[in-house]
Automatic annotation (TrEMBL):
SUPFAM superfamilies: Ribonuclease H-like. It comes from Tetrapyrgos nigripes. It comes from the Eukaryota. This is Uncharacterized protein.
Amino acid sequence: MAGKTEPFQLIWVSVALCRELLWMAERLEASDGVLLLGSLEWSRSEADLVLYTDASATGMGIWCPSLLHASHCPIDTPDPTRICFYKALAVVSALSFAASFNCFHHVIIFTDNSNTVSMFNSLHAKPDYNPLLITAMNILLDTNMQLRVLHIPGSSNVVADAISRSKFEVVRSEAPKATLHSFTPPELSSGSNSI
């Protein structure tokens, strides 16, 4: 709509945008209301679960210190130009992991990518990233979880970084009692299925 000067001028809407708008309308219609202020009021100390994520050109990693749970997902076709996408996908995968327990309410996920932090905190992204946000919102709305995505310097994200790079000897050194698992990212939603 940028650059339009006529308030009632028609605009072209792509099929992808139409799916996203219909998804939002369907979620709002089915919702009993969302208290946004309540979602912002909890602090780090109130988190039920804290996760650390990272992605490299060859894999994604999720580290859950409280459960001593390390998860790795290889990237079959490495593409260094998509590293930001994989870092955001690691966050969505960590959220899906948290939702699988069906007992956590306040979840914090750390990532060393500031663009990913901004994307999840503003719910604003490039169109290619919207399926990540839609999938995350579906998880949150379906489970009544609240999410905070926070930044951690890469130098402090040692275990998640090692997991993403398949450096499992570093994981064993940093967290000897950790168990290593593999994960598959959740299927991403592109919006409403009614089109």
